Amino acid sequence: MVQTRTIQLIIFCLLIISMQVLVQLGASTNSGDYVVLEPLKEEWENIPPSWDGSDPCNDPWEGIDCNNSRVISIKLSSINLKGELSGDIEGLSELQILDLSYNKGLTGSLPQSIGNLKSLSILILVGCGFSGLIPNTIGSLSQLEYLSLNLNNFIGPIPASVGNLSKLHWLDLADNKLSGPLPVSPGLDMLVHTKHFHLGGNQFSGEIPDQLFSSNMTLKHLLLDQNQLTGKIPPSLGLVQTLEVVRLDRNSLDGSIPSTLKNLALMSELFLSNNKFTGPLPNLAGMNALYYLDMSNNTFSSADFPQWFSTLQSLTTLVMENTQLQGEIPPTLFSLFQLQTVNLRGNKINGTLNIASNYSSQLKLIDLQNNSIDAYTVRPGFPFQIILMHNPVCYEERSEDYCGISQTNFVYSTPQENCLKTQCSSDQILSPTCKCAYPYTGDLFFRAPSFSDLTNTSIYESLQKSMLSSFSPNQVPVDSVSLSNPKKNSEYYLVLHLQVFPFGQDHFNRTGIATIGFALSNQTYKPPPKFGPFFFSGESYKYFEVGSRGTHKSITKGIIIGAAAGGAVLLILSVIIGVLVCQKKRDQEAIRKSNPFATWDSIKDSGGVPQLKGVKCFTFEELKKYTNNFSESNYIGSGGYGKVYKGTLPDGQLIAIKRAEQASKQGALEFKTEIEILSRFHHKNVVSLVGFCFRQGEQMLVYEFIPNGSLKESLSGKSGIKLDWKRRLRIALGAARGLQYLHDHVDPPIIHRDIKSNNILLDERLTAKVADFGLSKTMYEPDKGYVSTQVKGTMGYMDPEYYTTQQLTEKSDVYSFGVLLLELITARSPIVRGKYIVKELRQAIDKSKDMYNIDEFVDPAIPSNMTPISFRKFVDLAFTCLEDAGANRPTMAEVVKEIENIMEIDGLNSCAESRSTSVSHEGTSATFDHPYSEESLNRYNGVTNSR
Ligand SMILES: *[C@@H]1O[C@H](CO)[C@@H](O)[C@H](O)[C@H]1NC(C)=O
Ligand SMILES: *[C@@H]1O[C@H](CO)[C@@H](O)[C@H](O)[C@H]1NC(C)=O
Ligand SMILES: *[C@@H]1O[C@H](CO)[C@@H](O)[C@H](O)[C@H]1NC(C)=O
Ligand SMILES: *[C@@H]1O[C@H](CO)[C@@H](O)[C@H](O)[C@H]1NC(C)=O
Ligand SMILES: *[C@@H]1O[C@H](CO)[C@@H](O)[C@H](O)[C@H]1NC(C)=O
């Protein structure tokens, strides 16, 4: 018996030692960064399971990369993340890469504060659900090189401030709902180092400004297709010698096309179709790099078929549908050696279609529907399609070879090598290397390929090979890549379905998906040049957990086994020391454990041993040790009752110790009551009691340490924490929930009696916690509805009804809460120089005004993210809480509901608040392991935090 106990104690001691070792190993992520990641984790759904760890850098969180314990990169594509991008992200001051692509569930707008990410060089949010305006602070990202916000729902104009992004290489805002004119001076014209303007698929309007282009520009891809641009193409476009791809199609541009265009010697793809261009066809002779030319559906003046088409040596594709061309097609056109497609539908081409004998070997389609051709000279059996439907040559009842359209259904997908299987048994898919697995999938969109023959399989093979070699297995765990279903969509983009198969297992992990997603979203992977600009639209990967059920657990198990093995060595080494050290402890411990309140009864009027759950009785010596002998450096504040000290438990948990001053000592009974009340609370919005110390001459309460101090300090601006409207709403909600918990979920109910901003504490996530129950009253007879008691509380917050009747009800707390709400708006104490804020505001309010005519009372520190409607509802709520008659005030449950409503109006997710795990005593230590607490302590010592 005695031996088992000794062994138990030895193991206990070793556990403590190894826990301390663990605590020291971990927790090296920069605390400011941690403080940003924690709320993100709270706010987002479907975060990687590895985010359970307490150290994002060293106990690495998937998708996060660090350098010297600073977070430098977040890459989390295609994992079905849901939630919003919180403005707190600004705290990641060393962040260089943010890629959250292909998470449709990421919604809301981009926070203004994103402009404070001074190190950010890559911002990629392709294919998410973001909406709202692009914040103009984006122009403050002075290091930004790569900006991709395409495939979202952004509205409004391009902020002119983008012109300040002097390092920008890539700008992709395509496929949103952006509108307004293209900003210049300041604006896009200043981006002389940018190679890509991908702005298609929006609602931009107005003229393309002449100032936009200059010879200083180095633009390669100018994509403005599918907008509502009007006016002429500015002649200055011809100054941008570096241009390779220009898509201006599907706008309402008019006038004649400037002749300067032909100066652009590197131009390989030019799309001017579906506009309202007039005047003569431009002569583009000399554009010898031109592969793809589409000027369809414009109202050029009638012209004979230009001879210069036949001089464009690189041409693969000529699309001139409805362009008023007339006369005969010169046979030399078809001998351009790379020619694949000629689409001349709906013109006035007449005479004979004469295809020379040395025609291009790549020709696939000559489409001449709706012309005036009355004969053709084509050797029978030509291996490509010719369409002469609706030409005189097809009018007569002759059955001609070329008078119909033969539907060719071309199907392609990367073939399997040496494979006997044809199908996989489960929902897995057969890879090109003949393995069954769960591929990462999505679509590749090529915005301006230089070819038009989609039946040439060697093109897809070259793409597939180049992808595979860029995803070499030592960087990305890719086994094979499959491409399928090539087609042109209505925007004339080439779309290909992509499947990427995992290497060495049947599914990817999140790191693998994020790596591939990033390679495609950041264009780190570059396709062969003939494919031109592209983007990828990935699907959510759903197979992280398949076939690996328990992987996570078995890893954990491995760690435990490893730790146990290590522990065994430690055990042997420490047995002797352990026995010696623990022996002595054991004796003291045993005495204390058997009756922790042994000394209690001996104290007069103590009312018996307190009824406690999970609360520790500390000795004075212990607390002395934890506070470094109640040293000045551990002193963090004081109140009417005495001083508060910070302490550290042996397991690293930080505690706040309230040490009653001689004069303010409570009677033993009151003290005991407080402990009993406190020990019953387990709610994330109520401060938890860790323990107490009670002995002759000392009364101490030991609480969890709340790093960010009181709401009062934050409102006064002392703490350096910025409380914007959103945060204030969250704090109001947290405090209301804490109070509601006391009223409705503690049995018997508790009336706090001293709700005020000093008694609302803020933890590292700015979660509000109701504190200080020194005046709390338990409603032992809740049916009575009130407690008769001597009036206590704080002037300014005190319920006037209670004051006059001496009957304390839950509604007294509601009144104080109403005052607190006004304090959240005004950041003023309720009584200043004899003026009572409640009365002042009540008199000033004019409900016909947008801001109720009390703008001047509003704390100027609330940034403009406050909407008048939520402001008014908030003020209304405060004043119903402040009704003179308690019966007319809402219950705290109703208050909670209303704050949730208000948050919804502001588009805030009040559920994110409730999703947070509730903090129990056992759980609190985890909260304090992390290092932010250290920083908060500095704040307590008067060092202002940089936030
Ligand atoms: C091009 O750059 C030079 C020097 O940086 C500047 O003086 C000039 O005004 C610029 N030209 C245009 C057209 O922007
Ligand atoms: C030209 O306009 C017609 C009718 O709107 C449309 O069907 C056709 O696709 C357009 N052609 C091109 C090449 O855009
Ligand atoms: C073709 O059309 C042009 C212009 O409309 C005309 O001058 C020419 O004679 C026509 N050629 C034939 C062969 O009908
Ligand atoms: C993810 O997979 C790669 C390669 O398959 C592996 O090296 C890496 O350790 C895995 N990461 C995690 C967190 O499991
Ligand atoms: C992102 O892509 C660019 C090219 O588009 C490349 O230069 C850069 O190295 C990539 N960044 C990373 C971190 O891979």
TrEMBL record:
GO CC terms: membrane
Domain Protein kinase: 630-903
GO molecular function: ATP binding; protein kinase activity; protein serine/threonine kinase activity
Ranges of biased composition (kind: Polar residues): 916-927, 938-947
N-terminal signal peptide: 1-23
Leading EC class: transferase
Origin: domain of life: Eukaryota
Pfam families reported for this sequence: LRR_1 (PF00560), PK_Tyr_Ser-Thr (PF07714)
EC number assigned by the record: 2.7.11.1
Stretch list, region Disordered: 916-947
Keywords, alphabetical: ATP-binding, Glycoprotein, Kinase, Leucine-rich repeat, Membrane, Nucleotide-binding, Receptor, Repeat, Serine/threonine-protein kinase, Signal, Transferase, Transmembrane, Transmembrane helix
Mode of membrane association: Single-pass type I membrane protein
Any GO BP annotation: regulation of innate immune response
Residues that hold ATP according to the record: K658
CDD domains: STKc_IRAK (cd14066)
Compartments it resides in: Membrane
TM helices/strands, residue ranges: 559-582
PANTHER family: LEUCINE-RICH REPEAT RECEPTOR PROTEIN KINASE HPCA1, RECEPTOR-LIKE PROTEIN 55
Name of the featured protein: non-specific serine/threonine protein kinase
Organism: Solanum tuberosum (Potato)
Gene encoding the protein: LOC102592051
